[in-house]
């Protein structure tokens, strides 16, 4: 198992403190979810419909972390219920993982989007590093509350939120990482971290390669399944 390759970002404390003001001193997921609804730790709340907190049970062995809610998630108030979520469910089933036994969340809790001129459709826009760091207190609180054995980062944004900006998904996809003792995210939060692609990347990819990309994603999830069974 490798040790985390990331590092704490200079200047992250100020952004972190903004969201931290709203995080209650509680390990109860219901308390955390209620408090997150009024979070003003960054400006993304201004345009999003609502906060989209994680879903699942405390004590789940596996915790999946995506990037941010999408358009349908923002409207529903639940994570991974849009097209990428449906593909995620298919992949979990193919890999032999019951979603009901996992916890699913995002590194950023509000939908960031843009609109083409004259159009109503909301287009996903990647959160910047400051927004990811600002929202990290919620992710850390979820890690404390759920206490998973395995964290699966879906995509580079989620991986870098936990493992630092030096992490490269293309280089370390599917590898096991020990979070290590440095920085704010340490071994008390999880024993193992695995990073793979976000299911939305499969949908955005060339149609002729989607089946191959889906199979590779399922293969990564089977690694996670085997780790969970060994826990």
Task: Please describe what this structure looks like.
Helices cover 40% and strands 14% of the residues. It has 231 residues and is α/β, with parallel strands linked by helices. It has one domain (2-230): Uracil-DNA glycosylase-like domain (Uracil-DNA Glycosylase, subunit E, 3-Layer(aba) Sandwich), CATH 3.40.470.10. The chain has a 7-stranded mixed β-sheet, sandwiched between helices. Strands 5-6 form a two-stranded antiparallel ribbon. Strand 5 and strand 6 form a beta hairpin. Helix 4 (83-95) packs across helix 9 (210-230). The longest helix is centred in the C-terminal third of the chain and has 21 residues, at 210-230. The two termini are 15 Å apart. Residues 3-16 have low confidence and may be disordered. Keywords: 4Fe-4S, DNA damage, DNA repair, Hydrolase, Iron, Iron-sulfur, Metal-binding. This is Type-4 uracil-DNA glycosylase. InterPro entries: UDG_Type-4/5, Ura-DNA_glyco_family4, Uracil-DNA_glycosylase-like, Uracil-DNA_glycosylase-like_sf. Belongs to the uracil-DNA glycosylase (UDG) superfamily. Type 4 (UDGa) family. Pfam families: UDG (PF03167).
The biggest beta sheet reads: 7 strands, mixed
* Residues in helices, as a percent range: 40-55%
Outline: globular
Enter the CATH topology name: Uracil-DNA Glycosylase, subunit E
- Give me the CATH architecture, please: 3-Layer(aba) Sandwich
Please indicate the percent range of residues in DSSP E strands (runs of 2 or more).
5-15%
Identify the strand order in the major beta sheet: 1-8-9-7-3-4-2
Give me the secondary-structure category: alpha/beta
Number of helices: 9
Uncertain spans? 3-16
End-to-end gap: 15 Å
**What's the CATH class label?**
Alpha Beta
Q: What number is the mean pLDDT?
A: 89
Q: What is the CATH H-level superfamily?
A: Uracil-DNA glycosylase-like domain
Number of strands: 9
């Amino acid at each position: 198992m490798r040790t985390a390759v990331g590092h704490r970002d200079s200047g992250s404390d100020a952004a972190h403190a903004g969201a931290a003001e709203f995080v209650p001193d509680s390990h109860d997921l219901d308390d955390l979810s209620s408090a997150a609804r009024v979070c003003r730790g960054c400006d993304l709340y201004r345009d999003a419909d609502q906060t989209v907190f994680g879903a699942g049970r405390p004590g789940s062995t596996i915790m999946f972390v995506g990037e941010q809610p999408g358009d349908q998630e923002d409207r529903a108030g639940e994570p991974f219920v849009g097209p990428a979520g449906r593909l995620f469910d298919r992949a979990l089933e193919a890999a032999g993982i019951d979603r009901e036994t996992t916890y699913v969340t995002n590194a950023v809790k509000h939908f960031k989007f843009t609109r083409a001129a004259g159009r109503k459709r909301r287009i996903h826009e990647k959160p910047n590093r400051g927004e990811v760091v600002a929202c990290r207190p919620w992710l850390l609180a979820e890690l404390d509350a759920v206490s998973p054995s395995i964290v699966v980062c879906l995509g580079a944004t989620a991986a870098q939120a936990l493992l630092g900006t030096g992490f490269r998904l293309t280089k370390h996809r599917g590898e096991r990482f020990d979070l290590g003792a440095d920085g704010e995210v340490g071994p008390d939060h999880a024993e193992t971290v695995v990073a793979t692609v976000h299911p939305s990347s499969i949908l955005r990819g060339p149609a002729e390669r989607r089946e191959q990309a889906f199979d590779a994603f399922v293969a990564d999830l089977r690694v996670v399944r085997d780790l969970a069974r060994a826990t």
